[in-house]
Amino acid sequence: xxxxxxxxxxxxxxxxxxxxxxxxxxxxxxxxxxxxxxxxxxxxxxxxxxxxxxxxxxxxxxxxxxxxxxxxxxxxxxxxxxxxxxxxxxxxxxxxxxxxxxxxxxxxxxxxxxxxxxxxxxxxxxxxxxxxxxxxxxxxxxxxxxxxxxxxxxxxxxxxxxxxxxxxxxxxxxxxxxxxxxxxxxxxxxxxxxxxxxxxxxxxxxxxxxxxxxxxxxxxxxxxxxxxxxxxxxxxxxxxxxxxx
Length: 245
Known about the structure:
Number of strands: 9
CATH architecture: Alpha-Beta Complex
Largest sheet: 9 strands, mixed
Low-confidence stretches: none
Number of domains: 1
Radius of gyration: 18 Å
Mean pLDDT: 94
CATH superfamily: Spore Coat Polysaccharide Biosynthesis Protein SpsA, Chain A
CATH class: Alpha Beta
CATH topology: Spore Coat Polysaccharide Biosynthesis Protein SpsA, Chain A
Number of helices: 8
């Protein structure tokens, strides 16, 4: 990784009234070697909020196919060495990209995720630093076997990891990120930062609130699909830890 690697920030957008705020938070990063890619997943509302930013972003429209397809399109368009994902209702802290790039270089990580705080529809912070930090690979593998410890909008990952892991699964409407982090755990060096660098918005129209039952079904299916593979990865890491002692 060079001293100032290019970062592609991908914002999937579908009928979200907060998308202009997300774009602003991407464009206002203290780190300047970035590109912002907004992938419109067939929206019929709030597109006018994006128009003022056309000179400063890459914008692409596609037929509706879900978040996974929007992310895959954005990754395909990205020219950066590093990929960051920002949901259209969330907000980056101004220094998020700069701090993650620095941390990735110090730790030789392939993927870094951060802590995050919660805001409501009016940008009021109502809980701070709610993320899960797992300090070892073994702790991460044990946790991800039962639930997803990573908020997707906190992630920065080397683009080459998608060549190794494959694209987001378009068949998964709600857990495409959980599935991806499990697949990346096979070979990626995954690190976490305790500092909150994202505002995650909780509101009544968010997908996890509207489709919680469907999300739980997908989660259960993923846990069953990957249980045996994660068991083997956990055993391998336990044996490695014993040898290193």
